[in-house]
Amino acid sequence: MKTRREFFKSAAVLGALGATGLPLRAAENKTGAAVTGDDRKYWVSVAQKISRPVLENLARWELKLKMPIEAKPDAKPPRETCTYLEAFGRLLCGISPWLALENLSGDEAKLQREFIKLAQASLDAATNPTSPDFMNFTTGNQPLVDAAFLAQGLLRAPKVLWEPLEPRVKNQIIAAFKSSRKIATPAHNNWVMFAATVEVALLEFGEPTQAERLETCIRKMLGWYCGDGAYGDGDVFHFDYYNSFVIQPMLLDVLAVLRKHDAGFAPAHKIVLQRAKRYAEIQERFIAPDGTFPSIGRSTTYRFGAFQTLALIALRHELSEPIKPAQVRCALTAVIRKMIEAPGTFDANGWLQIGFCGHQPALGENYISTGSLYLCSAGLLPLGLPPADEFWSAPAAKWTSQKLWSGEDLPADHAIGDTRKVEVPTIKR
User: Fold this and answer.
1) How does pLDDT run across 312-332, given as a tens digit for each residue?
2) Is residue 8 within 8 Å of 60, Cβ to Cβ?
3) Closest among 186, 91, 106, 98 to 391, alpha carbons compared
4) Binning pLDDT at 50, 70 and 90, where does residue 429 land?
5) Is the pLDDT of residue 300 over 90?
6) What pLDDT band is residue 176 in, cutting at 50, 70 and 90?
7) Cα 286–Cα 224–Cα 236 angle in degrees, nearest 5
8) Is the pLDDT of residue 376 over 60?
9) Residue 19 confidence class, pLDDT cut points 50, 70, 90
10) Alpha-carbon Rg for the chain in angstroms
């Protein structure tokens, strides 16, 4: 281990990362979005700025030593028991499609290669019982949440975050995921998706799964569908962004894996995808002409992670007509710039601070701490599309609210009349 730690401390690796840094500002045009050609560089610079403190320190086994813990005095549980897994799992959930993207070139390819190495080393550090950064997967309830985000990251980039790992590290990760089963399966809210996501990762990695933590949890979540592309958070609908933070992305990812293992899950996946596409349409309309959006409900300190469903649907080339990839790119770029460049978003050492637009500690509920904030990276999922993809290469375009508020005559928006009961089979064990 000493050799690995010394390697990641070396000037060669860390210096290379700094040398490939990209400017954080981007040119603007009349749409308010960055000029085509600069958008991707800007997004990569944001991903780098968010990721660097977490992955550099974790790769050299110094995350717990270096990462600050900002939280309210009444935070529960004590955040030092869970905030490190929050930061790592949530970050990997968002940047993994970019890490998995093949055939990049130039500075971006160089940066990607270095971050892949850091992510792989970080997976060892986080799950190795001898590491000072060995993370808590068992004590309290919160670790189930972030074990799921970590699993989601691995499922989104298996060719770089799973397959190349040595058997020892794979076994550590599997042991960590299995140990999270000590945390009781929740029954009444979106947490059912955390148990299901951990289980489906174990399934994908060749391990036996538990029906009560997989199929049963999915059935519960699907049973809370409210209509027009939105699910309740349990029996009661909450007007917040949890359909994007958790529910819809995890449903899609879990059912995609199950469909691969058993074609009987294909009908459920198809219905869930149609609902997610509608929810993504609504999310695109939420973005105002200036790149702001409503701060509604809890966990707004996850910033542009609120648009994970829209970002995921764009990544999968599943946007509904007439929404075009370029308008989503420009809308999300405007949101990201508005939030990432607000004074106080980062502390002096580059760590995220609590806030929605800048540093706003009062917004930090008692389950929020520094690590929680890294779910913002989920808004960066389209970095998993190649630079030549229409999402990045098409000319800048106005998004829906810009069109409407500038007087364009657009068709009216309509709800989807979806009241279907979704059947979920039992996976063959």
Assistant:
1) 999 999 999 999 999 999 999
2) yes
3) 98
4) confident
5) yes
6) very high
7) 75
8) yes
9) very low
10) 20
319 within 8 A of 325, measured Cβ to Cβ: yes
Sign of torsion over alpha carbons 102, 194, 64, 123: negative
Taking CA atoms, 1 is separated from 69, 169, 358, in Å, by: 27, 13, 39
Q: 257 falls in which pLDDT band (50, 70, 90)?
A: very high
Q: What average pLDDT score do residues 339-357 get? A: 98
Both structure tokens of 38: 């600069």
Which among 172, 214, 209 has a CA at the least distance from the CA of 193? 214
Assess contact for 372 and 84: CB atoms under 8 A.
no
pTM over 0.85: yes
Are 376 and 352 spatial neighbours (Cβ–Cβ below 8 Å)? yes
CA gap 391, 178 in Å, rounded: 38
Strand partners, 346: 352
What does the pLDDT average to over 214-243? 96
d(CA 215, CA 218) in angstroms, rounded, equals: 5
Whether omega before 343 lies within 30 degrees of 0, making that bond cis, reads: no
Tokens of 2: 């000493």
Phi, psi of 275 (to 5 degrees): -65, -40
pLDDT confidence of residue 37: 54
Residue count of the chain, please give it.
429
Domain architecture of the chain: domains with CATH: 27-405 (1.50.10)
Rounded CA-CA distance 117/125 in Å is 12
**Alpha-carbon torsion 257, 260, 261, 263, what sign?**
positive
Give which of 311, 318, 283 is closest to 379, Cα–Cα. 311
Place of tokens 């894996």: 257
Which alpha helices (DSSP H) does 299-344 contain, by range?
Answer: 308-315, 325-340
Phi, psi of 227 (to 5 degrees): 115, 160
| CA distance readout (Å), 322 to 73, 318, 399, 413 | 48, 12, 11, 11
Amino acid at 174: I
Token output for 421: 């009961």
Q: How far is CA 78 from the centre of its chain?
A: 24
Percentage of residues in the chain having pLDDT higher than 70: 91
Quick one: average pLDDT of 111-130? 98
Q: Tokens for 318?
A: 């599943």
